[in-house]
Design brief:
Elements: H1 2-17, H2 27-48, H3 50-54, H4 56-85, H5 98-115
Length: 119
């Protein structure tokens, strides 16, 4: 577990240090290739396991149902999250800056203070 956490921490540090370089734009495609290689070698491992292959007919349908159910559940959840949080929102560049909102709030507070009767 510690080597995994160290790898993640090292990756975060590397991403932070190189965030302004061209290196970061290649991480997406590189990550896809690495994931495909991991899946390939997982398949090689499963295919070379005699116990899994001999019981494949018994676990095949169950594995298929779990895979389809997990995929459908993920798609439904992702669609709900998108509809709930992202659909219909403007681009960030079109939204007003939070700093501008703060200056408006302070102006409104100043106006309210000026209109309040003094005791």
């Amino acid at each position: 577990m510690i080597p995994i956490l160290l790898c993640i921490a090292t990756g975060i540090l590397t991403g932070y240090l190189f965030r302004k370089t061209g290196f970061v734009k290649y991480t997406g495609p590189l990550l896809s290739v690495v994931i495909m290689l991991l899946l390939f070698f997982l398949g090689v491992s499963v295919g070379s396991n005699k116990q899994v292959i001999s019981n494949f007919s018994g676990i095949g349908l169950e594995a298929l149902l779990l895979t389809v159910g997990g995929t459908l559940g993920s798609l439904i959840c992702a669609k709900w999250v998108f509809a709930r949080f992202f659909a219909g929102k403007k681009n960030r560049s079109e939204q007003p800056s939070p700093v501008n909102n703060l200056s408006r709030c302070s102006e409104e507070e100043d106006d309210q203070k000026e209109n309040k009767p003094t005791l």
